[in-house]
Amino acid sequence: MSTPPYADELNLCLCHTCGLACDMTDEPHECERCGAPLHRRKTNSLTRTWAYMIAALVFYIPANLLPVMNTEMVGHGADSTIMSGVLEFWEAGAWDIALIIFIASIAVPGIKFVAITLLLITVQRDSEWARKERSTLYRFVEVIGYWSMLDVIVVALVASLVKFQALADIEPRPGILFFGLVVVFTMLSAMSFDPRMIWDKERENPHNEEVTDEVASH
């Protein structure tokens, strides 16, 4: 069964800015519609993805160990880390805020670290395992990345709300800066990964599945 041609076989490239299919014959390689530079593939995708993810992991340690905010009630102040803040909100009855902070600060970064590492390792090993599912996993990582700043926003909102009370005050601490860096570097890591690498092995052996099916039928 014949397969449709690939974009680079037709010398076409999709603009990442406006989505136009552009002809790569003439130089410079710029989008005809928006003028953005064109690249057939994300340059040094694996190297940059690993670098950003390792940087995010390094910042993730102080983000969880250092206090993210200081709560002062009636003259008595106490620093809170992410996890202790979750417990304090939960014990105070604000389970919804505690749940949001836990998901955004603990669950989401952990999921992204595991997912991106899985994608990187399988691509480097030229794995043919679950290509479609891995592509879906990458899209999922992109989607949850947009919600990664929820924790920083929640801390800012809580601080602004508490400041309205005369006997209470909340101030951010260095941990929130490191968590912001974790968010930025995990987003850069996901953006640097080229999901087309998942399908490169299949492209090198386009008839592999057909041959396997024929052998199985005989």
TrEMBL record:
Transmembrane region(s): 50-69, 97-123, 144-164, 176-193
Pfam family, one: PqiA
GO cellular component, one term: plasma membrane
Keywords: Cell inner membrane, Cell membrane, Membrane, Transmembrane, Transmembrane helix
Subcellular localization(s) per the UniProt record: Cell inner membrane
Matches recorded under InterPro entries: PqiA-like (IPR007498), PqiA-PqiB_transport (IPR051800)
PANTHER family recorded: INTERMEMBRANE TRANSPORT PROTEIN PQIA, INTERMEMBRANE TRANSPORT PROTEIN PQIB-RELATED
Protein name per UniProt: Paraquat-inducible membrane protein A
The organism of origin for this protein: Pseudomonas laurylsulfatiphila
Lineage of producing organism: Bacteria, Pseudomonadati, Pseudomonadota, Gammaproteobacteria, Pseudomonadales
